[in-house]
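Structure catalogue
Derive tokens from sequence
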Amino acid sequence: MNQIHLSANQFVIEASVAESIAESLNLPSVLHLLPHLVQSAQALARPPISNFNVGAVGLGSDGRVFVGVNLEFPGLPLHHSVHAEQFLLTNLAVHRCRRLLSFAVSSAPCGHCRQFLQELRHSSSVQILVIDEENCAQNIDHVENRKPLSIFLPNPFGPHDLLDHECPLLLDQHDNRLDLLPPNDVNSVNLSNGNDENFSKLANGNCGKYEKSEDLLRESALEAANNAHAPYSGCPSGVALMDSEGNVYKGSYTESAAYNPSLGPVQAALVAYVASGGGGYESIVAAALVEKEGAKVRQEDTARLLLKAVSPKCDFRVFYCHSS
């Protein structure tokens, strides 16, 4: 078995690079490369609670290869965790890849992930290859052992039960047509956890830079909310994170037809942070959430709880929006 090392920021492999790697290993195609990357992907996982590393490596319709890993957050309920398959799909969404063709994964997808995968268009045809200890030797060089999602979830409940066929699904292009409420509107007052220390450090005492950073976060969170997949509640939301170097990472809320497997916008933004090579979460100094005021499904309290756990000094602000 050929081992390939992935660096901490190598969560996306461009199509030409993936083809070159496959060729150098004398593999017939990039599809055959996926299982050879799984073990290296596992090493990038962050599961401090279970210490059970999961890695998933997928092939997008544009030829790029995407990596997904599981994330766990000590001090929080387990349902805040991000599963490797959720990370994988969010990684595709962040990089605007419209379809997942196939993926190899270090453990069989749990029921939670099988349901989350149902949000994809043509989900039943997604090919899955399990590379666990039992099947490693058998499957690593035999991609014909792949099975479609329909085998893993033979009698699915999903978008087709609740939505019109024309409704955008996960990885489809979304435009929720949201605008921020006017700055002087009482409903759009910035909410902060009272800690402006990190924001001030980022601005280095420069008021203009401080305001520019806040504007960037707010607009980035609005963009993420407009890209959110929330067809069941009608409550899209988005989060933008900023690190100590001023880099911004966006996350869009993603709903599941079964509700519970839905992925919050903070988790999605943390996926973008990790996939970009972000280090410790304490480097996240500021965050903004955009959501509808009085929404039936609200993210503010959960977002505040999660951010406090991963980066206690992170400045957190909430901005309200409405449908345009």
In short: Residues 207-226 form the longest helix (20 residues). The CA atoms of residues 200 and 206 lie 8 Å apart. The longest strand covers residues 284-292. The two ends are 54 Å apart (CA to CA).
